[in-house]
Amino acid sequence: MLIVPGEAFSIYLMWKSGTKDLDCWYINLQEPIRRTRIGFDTMDNMLDIVVHPDMSEWRWKDDDEFIEAEKVGLYSSEEAHEIWAEGEKALKLLTQDRQLFYLKWKTWQPNTEWGIPMLSPLWNEME
What we know:
The chain is α+β, with helices and mostly antiparallel strands. It has 3 helices and 7 strands; from the N terminus they run E-E-E-E-E-E-E-H-H-H. The strands form 2 sheets. Strands 1-2-3-6-7 form a 5-stranded antiparallel β-sheet. Strands 4-5 form a two-stranded antiparallel sheet. A hairpin with a 5-residue loop joins strand 1 and strand 2 (9-15). The model has no long low-confidence stretch (mean pLDDT 93).
């Protein structure tokens, strides 16, 4: 998962289970990440984009649920418009403007000495 502070999305690289074959690029639309006293926090915005491994094709994901969420008032029309626009911006950044940067992440491997991260015992406390 790659997150740029200030941007309202993150980009995931998703691999086919048990392989090193890229399944898709996944754009998760979310509130910009913010630092808290125990780490980082964000809020998912329900709407996502799934991009083919070679970036030649893409599709909205959960757009039907997002449209319904706007209808019932979970998002105002202005907020929904901003989220759709953020998705289009993220797609352009992934497939065009920052494509070379993101493509380098396809071969990234974590340090084998790193342990599995532990969830803070304060994870459910509100700030």
